Amino acid sequence: MLELAIVISVAHIAAAIALLNGITTTFGQAKICAQAIESMARQPEAADSIRSAMFIGLAMGETSGIYGLLIAIIMLFANPLIDILLTYLG
Fold it and tell me: In 3-state terms, what secondary structure has residue 72?
């Protein structure tokens, strides 16, 4: 049973590390918006193309955060390693 406790504790640590992705996603999206606003202030005639590129960058950053959340949920609630370990232990 010690092996099972180790696998579960490592899964919780891995989920916490995966959730740290949400913090970095927030800072990345703030940087994207700040740079886009600065670029639009410098070149107002290019605001439409800058805004389009900003939204594409924000969508990519948000999917990164969602993937981190998905990995954390899988590690906590549907961890395949626990099933493999239980079959191995008998």
Answer: helix
Q: What is the pTM of this model?
A: 0.73
DSSP, res 78: S
**14-46 CB burial, b ≥16 within 10 A, e <16:** bbeebbebeeebeebbeebeeebeebbeeeeee
Q: What is the CATH number of domain 2-89?
A: 1.20.20.10
Q: What is the DSSP letter of 21?
A: H
Token digits of residue 2:
């010690």
What pLDDT digit, counting tens, does each position of 3-52 carry?
888 888 999 999 999 999 888 899 999 999 999 999 999 999 999 999 99
